[in-house]
Amino acid sequence: MARPLMVRMILPLIIVLHLVIASLLALKLNLWVDEAYSLHTTGAGLRYAVLQALHFENQPPLYFLLLWAWRQVNSSLFFARLFSIGCSFLTLLCVARWSRHRFPNLHPALPVAAVALNPLTVGAAVDARSYGLVLLLSASLLAAFYGGFWALGTDKKARVAFTVLAAAALYTQYYLAFLLVAFGALIFLNRRTQLPHYLASVAIALAAFVPMIFVLMHQLRVASASTFAPASAYDNAWQVASVFLRFVFPVPALPHAATVVLWCALLALVGLCVLALRRHGSADRFDLTAITVLAGVLILTALTIFNQQITARYAAGLFVVTVLAAYAWLYDKDRERQPAAAALTAIAALLSIVSLIQIYQPMAKTGDWQRVAAYIMQNEKAGEPIMIFEANEALPLAHYYGGLNVVVPVPSALRFDTYDVRRNVIGSEADIGKALGERNASAAQAWLVTTDYCKWLTIDFHCDLLDRFVARHYVVKSRRTFFHSTVRLLGRRGAAPLTDTQRGEFAPRG
Q1: Phi, psi values for residue 504, rounded to 5°
Q2: Which residue has the higher pLDDT, 271 or 33?
Q3: Between helices 319-330 and 77-102, what is the axis angle to 10°?
Q4: Cβ pair 106, 338 in contact under 8 A
Q5: C-alpha 65: how far from its chain's center?
Q6: What are phi and psi of 491, to 5 degrees?
Q7: 265 and 353: one domain?
Q8: Residue 150 carries which DSSP code?
């Protein structure tokens, strides 16, 4: 039976809402350091983009090649973000189409709303990084997998599409390979007649990936050379579980006790719904769950082996399948109305909206570099060098700053041959003096721009050495705090002892 017009309009309205939110944020939010890397990598020629992707970004090159081509039309930050917004738009269309086929009694607007409003999707859409493309490829791979290998009447065109998408996935984010492994395991367990076809498709994709093998081995050596101590297997497992729970229930930042209570309540609610529907659920519930769990375990293993930080971005390729698995558990194939799925959407949407308000209330990304640059340019005079720590943040600041003075990264300028966060560590106060140089060090006034963090995992950047150097040579004349950054105007001082206020000003930051 055809749905009323108002009901049919819900899906396009949700997609339009996502596009409006993402476009407004993409237009207003400042550039942050990771996006600055993307603009730099794709800001020169095609060859430079490939080399930087492989050796500086330490990633496969497809996203950067596509972004380079995209930016030939327009080189602005907003236009670069539009590529990610386009990827999120296509992801939502893919989720809607897949849901119509697999959950015929479920309005596709329900899972689409859960995906569209989730902070991960919005964040990927407003970021000039690869995660929007990762979401699109993962959703497309899932659709092609079901059409080409899992459905009763398998589609040869879907198999061809899966092969192309699998190769593209390997050239976009290595973690998407675990999705291919999970698909293969599912085929082996339940559709062995399709196993030769699946292995043939994956073999073609792997053959296309052969030129990247030696590059990947080098990148793995670089990744495993990180100096921070790995977390315990239990801690890593808890972090991965938290990431996957937030895929479905994007719980906002709350006190620890409140978060635990909320998790328990949400899981209890889901458990009750599953028990109520245990005889009438979707046949896809176990399939999608198996894909999520197996790929999640593989990602956990890889991140643990190579001592990598566990974040939602690394598991972004499993976001869509995780959300759809949740709906598969609540879907009742024998009922036209789906109250459990509607309740899940309402809870997820509410949590997403609260989280989005928390995340974007400052209307700034880390550093708030556009406002920082504007503030300095409004108040500076010639001959006032601008020290910035840590050094990588000079790149997004330089995107906005067009003032009278030189920007001095501390302890040294960012190098684009390879990326090594340890280069940002201050070894001694002499490193700061060397970065300033004799002319800048003798300036009567200088600016100091710092971020809010002094460590990355277990790597200590030694803010205490910077504080000591500044306290020894300068007096603070003014201070302005921005989103995760602070700007100070310093006046060069003599040998007079520091006041208690000045000592407090330069107390080491956490």
Answers
A1: -65, -35
A2: 33
A3: 30
A4: yes
A5: 19
A6: -110, 130
A7: yes
A8: I
H/E stretch holding 353: helix 339-360
Tokens of 330: 């609540």
Q: pLDDT-based confidence at 49, cuts 50/70/90? A: very high
Mean of all residue pLDDT scores within the chain: 88
81 within domain boundaries: yes
Whole-number Å distance between alpha carbons of 186 and 205: 19
Check whether the bond before 385 is cis (ω within 30° of 0). Answer: no
Percent of the chain whose predicted confidence (pLDDT) is above 70: 86
Cα–Cα distance measured from residue 285 to residue 283, given in angstroms and rounded to the nearest whole number: 6
Rg of the chain in Å (alpha carbons): 25
Do 373 and 354 lie in one domain? The reply is no
CATH of the domain at 425: 3.40.50
User: How far, rounded to the nearest angstrom, does the alpha carbon of residue 327 sit from its chain's CA centroid?
Assistant: 24
How far is Cα 433 from Cα 431, in angstroms, rounded to an integer?
A: 6
Task: State how far Cα 136 lies from the chain centre.
Answer: 14
Which pLDDT score, from 0 to 100, does residue 289 have?
86
Residue 101 sits in which domain range? 5-30+76-360
What separation in angstroms does the CA of 475 have from each of 167, 250, 433, 508? 57, 45, 16, 16
177 and 318 assigned to the same domain = yes
Distance in angstroms (rounded) separating the CA atoms of residues 488 and 347? 44
For residues 103 and 272, the model is more confident at 103
401 and 295 in one domain? no
424 lies in the same domain as 355? no
Number of domains present in the structure of the chain: 2
Task: Verify that 296 and 384 share a domain, yes or no.
Answer: no
Q: What is the pLDDT of residue 240?
A: 81
Say which range, 63-77, 153-167, 297-311, 414-428, has the weakest mean pLDDT. Answer: 297-311
Whether 465 has a pLDDT exceeding 80, the answer reads: yes
Question: 22 - beta bridge partners?
Answer: none
Is-contact 312 246, C-beta < 8 A? yes
Secondary-structure breakdown of the chain: helix, strand, coil percentages, each rounded to the nearest 5: 65, 5, 30
Task: Show the tokens assigned to 199.
Answer: 């292995």
pTM (two decimals)? 0.91
Residue 204 tokens, joined: 């073609």
Return the structure tokens found at 109: 């607007």
145: CB partners within 8 A, 6+ apart? 162, 183
The top-scoring range by mean pLDDT among 73-82, 230-239, 426-435 is 73-82
